Amino acid sequence: FEFVYNYLYLANLRANWDEVKRQAEKAPQPEARRYVLPLSIDKADTGKNLVTLPYTTATATLRSDETIWLEPEVIFSGPRHAFEFPQINYRKYGGKPYTYTYGLGLNHFVPDRLCKLNVKTKETWVWQEPDAYPSEPIFVSHPDVLEEDDG
Q1: Pairing status of strand 82-87 against strand 124-127
Q2: DSSP codes, 7-31
Q3: Of 22, 24, 49, 99, which is most buried by a Cβ count within 10 Å?
Q4: Does the keyword Transport apply (predicted)?
Q5: Which of 43, 66, 39 is nearest to 51 (CA)?
Q6: Per 3-state DSSP, what percentage of the chain is helix, strand, and coil (rounded to 5)?
Q7: Taking the alpha carbons of 39, 43, 44, 45 in that order, is the dihedral positive or negative?
Q8: Model-level pTM greater than 0.70?
Q9: How far apart are CA 51 and CA 49, in angstroms?
């Protein structure tokens, strides 16, 4: 809380850059996780994994008290390699199956790269330049879009 609200003001970033980097190293790194919520539940499936999708290791297990225990699949993680503000091609794939998401890459809370992630294979592509600090990505489709990531 203190780090986000005190250190990340632009004036503090400029005045205390080395201190910001030291404090940021203590912060937990976010992960991109996939949770799968089952849409239909049969009480006979108690104790079983209700996720039948072939491309994920996420699980949803029906318990005897009729609650569902979710375990996510981590699709993007790593030290000093966070993925925040994910975006997809919403115009064409909002509410539909998609393959690619784009995010802001953070090095201990310092945004220094843009990332493209294949959510099925977990393959990543990174754009990064020295002394460049991009902001949240926004997907802009090519006018004559043919492919999901054409933009």
Answers
A1: unpaired
A2: ITSHHHHHH-HHHHHHHHTTSPPP-
A3: 24
A4: no
A5: 39
A6: 20, 30, 55
A7: positive
A8: yes
A9: 6
